[in-house]
Each structure stands twice: as structure tokens, then as C-alpha cells.
Amino acid sequence: MSTSSTTPDVDQICAFCESQIFEHDPVCVRDCTVDCGSPVYFCNYACLVEYVDENDLTTGDACEWSP
User: Fold this and answer.
1) Radius of gyration over alpha carbons of the chain, in Å?
2) Which positions ≥6 away from 44 have C-beta within 8 Å?
3) Which residues pair with 40 in a beta bridge?
4) How far apart are CA 46 and CA 34, in angstroms?
5) Phi and psi (nearest 5°) for 42?
6) d(CA 42, CA 24)
7) Burial class for 22, CB neighbours closer than 10 Å (0-12, 13-18, 19+)
8) Which residue has the higher pLDDT, 56 or 54?
């Protein structure tokens, strides 16, 4: 699996709150389970966490634990 890294445009907006990412502490995320699609940019970790929660992206993605 190979990926390339590029700097986003100066006016790139956050995938969650639509703020310009470089006005904050930007985070870039890629889904590399298949193909490493296009990067998604967030202005900070709080927006990333809210995006994950609102889209149920953790459902079914954890190991099962049994006491």
C-alpha cells in the first residue's frame, strides 16, 4: 500500500464545520483499508471526533471483549 503526501490548498475547508483548516490545528485522515482514497481534512481533533461520532464510524470496528 503506497500513499503520497501533498499539502492541501490554502483555502481547504474542514469536512465537519467548514472552517478553513489552516486557521486552526489541521488533521488529515485517509481510509487505507482499501485503496487509500482521497484525504479528508479537519481543522482540529475535536471536529474529527464529532465527525466520527455523527457517522458511526467506530461501530463494528473494535475487538470483542468478554470478561
Assistant:
1) 14
2) 24, 25, 26, 27
3) 29
4) 26
5) -125, 150
6) 9
7) middle
8) 54
Interval 14-48: pLDDT, tens:
999 999 999 999 999 887 776 777 889 999 999 99
What is the spatial distance between Cα 23 and Cα 32, in angstroms, rounded to a whole number? 27
Residue 46 confidence (pLDDT): 96
For cell 464545520, name the residue. Answer: 17
Residue in the structure block whose three cell numbers are 468478554: 66
CA–CA dist 42, 11 (Å, integer) = 12
Q: In 3-state terms, the chain is what percent helix, strand and coil (to 5)?
A: 20, 10, 70
**What cell numbers appear for 66 in the block?**
468478554
